[in-house]
Amino acid sequence: AQSVAQPEDQVNVAEGNPLTVKCTYSVSGNPYLFWYVQYPNRGLQFLLKYITGDNLVKGSYGFEAEFNKSQTSFHLKKPSALVSDSALYFCAVRDTDNYGQNFVFGPGTRLSVLP
Amino acid sequence: EAQVTQNPRYLITVTGKKLTVTCSQNMNHEYMSWYRQDPGLGLRQIYYSMNVEVTDKGDVPEGYKVSRKEKRNFPLILESPSPNQTSLYFCASSLSLGPGNTIYFGEGSWLTVV
User: Fold this and answer.
1) Whether the Cβ atoms of residue B28 and residue B15 lie closer than 8 Å to each other
2) What is the rounded distance in angstroms from the CA atom of residue A99 to the CA atom of residue A87?
3) Is B95 on the interface with A (CB under 8 A)?
């Protein structure tokens, strides 16, 4: 069965510094990987996805993510964090062998960007 | 504007009183789904629907019902709510079951069962 892990409950970073939110996955087929962000009292918003091709994926709000097949990872990154990036971030995977199960989400990582 | 709309956004109800959370999407999406979000557990799928009149259980279907009589609507029904169903609920949709399709979420419905 597919699964997603986000090993950090909380990530703190100073404004202007680079940020990384980690995600690892397990699937039986090929992974389709997604990052979503949730601001307080809001629904989840799509940031970016990896389907195939270039391992570095660029998304909304200056975020990017790097797919690493050997490490089964899909870490979210941003070169320079903003206070407004503070939110809850979810990694999700869809497995090409089991896509009837739709998305499997990680537990979420709360990002706090300190001014 | 393309969106997924849920109602109500906030609800406090009593144990055993049937309630329905409505969900509607205006993107002509085939696939719709319900999730609940609980602290430390992320999002867990309750039910999903691949098209009209086609529904299936997700990971945590107990205590819930759904129906898909029209393509745009996918209501979530709690026949006899219990306190352990207090949660934040999200409706979502995507164009189809194709794995590369992005899923779009509603704004969420906060449900408290006392």
Assistant:
1) no
2) 28
3) no
Rounded to whole angstroms, the Cα distance separating B98 from A29 reads 14
Give yes or no for A46 touching B (CB within 8 A). Answer: yes
Which are the contacts of A46, defined by CB distance < 8 A and separation ≥ 6? Answer: A34, A36, A60, B102, B103, B104
Q: pLDDT tens across B77-110, in order?
A: 999 999 999 999 999 999 887 767 888 999 999 9
Judge whether residue A11 has pLDDT over 90.
yes
Quote the tokens at residue A73: 């990872």
φ, ψ for residue A108, nearest 5 deg: 100, 150
In chain A, whose CA is at the least distance from the CA of B108?
A: A43
Closest by Cβ to A51, choosing from B48, B100, B105: B100
What number of C-beta contacts closer than 8 Å exist between A and B? 60
Give the Cα separation of A79 and A18 in Å (integer).
4
Greatest CA separation found in chain B? 40
Residue B99 and residue A99 in contact, taking contact as beta carbons nearer than 8 Å: yes
CB atoms within 10 A of CB A87: 19
A45 touches chain B (CB under 8 A): yes
* List of residues 6+ apart from B10 with CB closer than 8 A: B109, B110
As given in the structure block, the two tokens for residue A32 are: 């389709």
Q: In terms of Cα–Cα distance, which of B47, B74, B77 is closest to B65?
A: B77
